[in-house]
Amino acid sequence: MAQAIRFHKAGGPEELSFDTVDVPAPGAGEVRVRHTAIGVNYIDTYHRSGLYPLPLPSGVGTEAAGVAEAVGAYSTERNVPADKLVKIPDGVDDRAAASLMLKGLTVQYLFRQTHRLQAGETILFHAAAGGVGLIACQWARALGVTMIGTAGSDEKAALAREHGCAHTIVYTRENFVERVKAITGGKGVPVVYDGVGKDTFPGSLDCLSPRGLFVSFGSASGAIAAFNIGLLAQKGSLYATRPTLFNYASTPDKLRAMAEEMFALVREGKLKAEIGQTFALRDAAEAHRALESRKTTGATVLLP
Fold it and tell me: Which CATH number describes the domain made up of 103-246?
């Protein structure tokens, strides 16, 4: 028997339960994985809340590290298709791997595919001290990109700068639109990466240079309300996109190519996991509460 975090109805963190489940023997093309570390991501809260509905009852979580073909899996209700697994490179421990895959591949598709960043560009990235944000800080530095990052406190801003963010804006007391204009000499930036949502829209549009790209990849503060598409014309013939990782890593070959680029930076010492907090697996609800209240920095990992 295995232990799994599940929810039987959509709702708040209190709906997460620590259940004992029976995982069947792996079928053709499947493996059983004993998880040793489980990454927590904001998309987990969307699944749990029902914003992104799942068949119920459901497990929760989208990344983990562990040992394949082992009996007694933790935190999962089902076996895993073998072609969805990525081998952890030498020198990367399980906790780091569990905190890097989804967040690191998110930065890969944002920086290398949605808008392929070039050395010398300046960008705006919201929530720069979060799990995705700290990876973005390091990746931007590795590319020679000047990153302007927003954060909720001086402590978080300092953490973002330590990881490569060139300029930080504490949005709780500073107007991020005015600061971006000042930093860029009034030009704005060619791309804004926004995982916050409601609280930063439409200010993010005002930070863009003409024909700039608004990339909305999350909604930590709530979903962006419907808006008149003419707003994009009014603010400079802007582009807007709402990408997801799973559309970019849509095949095993694409997934592995993205992972190889990310792990190459890890091997070169240009990218490292920043695990801000860990929780026991059975305390997953507390991890969700901390994440949603913006009390976390870096990655959050569950340990079985």
Answer: 3.40.50.720
